Amino acid sequence: MIDLVGHFGSHLSYATVADQLAQGLDDCDALGNIINLDDKCIGARWSNRVRRERGKKVIVVADAPYLMESLCSEYAQRDTSLFVCPNTNLMSEDRVEMCRSAGRIYTPSRWCSGAIVHGLEETDEIEVCVMPLGIDDPFATEQRGPRDDHHKVRLLHLTTDTFWPGRKGTEELIEAWSIVRSMMSESHQHMSLTIHCLPGLYQTIYQTLGDAKLVGEIEVLPANGRGGDSRGLFDLIAQHDMLVAPSRSEGFGIMPLSALASGTPVVTTTGTGQDEYLSDMNGWLATPTMGQEELFGEHGLAPVVDVERLALQLVAGMHLQHELTSAAALNDTRQAEWSWQVRRETWAQSLINWEKEA
User: What is the residue extent of each domain of the chain?
Assistant: First the structure.
């Protein structure tokens, strides 16, 4: 049996991975104890998952360096694995030490593995495994319905950041919207923009919109503080013509992939982990990044969003919306292979093979 430590109280990033890995291991009858790090558990199936004896090995799906000392008293280094998804090109010292407490590290992209390997020393006998993530139903099974014949191209931006400036390029997008309005007075009248954000950013975003004289021009939608369920996110994205994701940091980029797989075009940036699958997907416009700078709240550097180029891509997206939508619809042939059903089976088998190692 393999124990699992993670977040089961939200639908956000690491929590989704923990939930899917638990399901994959459970499907193979290889799931041991679950340790939930949150104050509640979403999904009753994992709320009381405790066995009398701990598993032979453990995987930690949490960015929690403080946990490793206590876990090391229960599990040997060779019996401990971590899921790690760096946000920048370098990891902080405490995260490097966290990685050194494990015998195996799982990460979702080669971009992430580069940051991890850079922090480790040649003497560290730690295996780093690149294991891509999956997309939730209904993104993996449904295509968005036909668009109505409307005048405006409706753009949607999603952010799960709780600090500012953040990783998802929200402030750069607001700046770009101002440029679009000023340089082409009629272009912004043919587009609408909705920002979907967690409660922690409401005040800052409204203040930023006020400073830019954009209050009333950009709609701000409230998000659940614990993240939205997959059906709600699918319906929200399907109501818009394009997802705008000018992220500075995407270890994998699950929402752009989910949107593209289900037929919604995307305006996004390059230079992050999502580059590794974008080349195989249809219906997206790339906004090149310009060098690297520090990312607030993080150690290391991340790509810089070029605001002027982003503004030009927004205008291009408006004019090319029908072509991009037709191209994105071709991704339906790729949906199944990116489903969590497929991906979690691969994850589970890797973990089970690791458990069998001496």
Answer: 2-134+339-356, 153-338
DSSP string, 332-346: GGTHHHHBHHHHHHH
Q: Do residues 272 and 111 touch, judged by C-beta distance below 8 A?
A: yes
Q: Which fold has domain 2-134+339-356?
A: Rossmann fold (3.40.50)
HSE toward the beta carbon, residue 204, CA cutoff 13 A: 13
pLDDT in tens, 235-285: 999 999 999 999 999 999 999 999 999 999 999 998 899 999 999 999 999
Which of 196, 177, 172 is closest to 188 using CA atoms?
A: 177
- Domain 153-338 belongs to what topology? Rossmann fold (3.40.50)
Contact between residue 61 and residue 18 where contact means Cβ atoms under 8 Å apart? yes
CA–CA separation, 197 and 161 (whole Å): 8
- Whether omega for the bond prior to residue 138 falls within 30 degrees of 0, making it cis, is yes
Cα gap 27→22, rounded to integer Å? 9
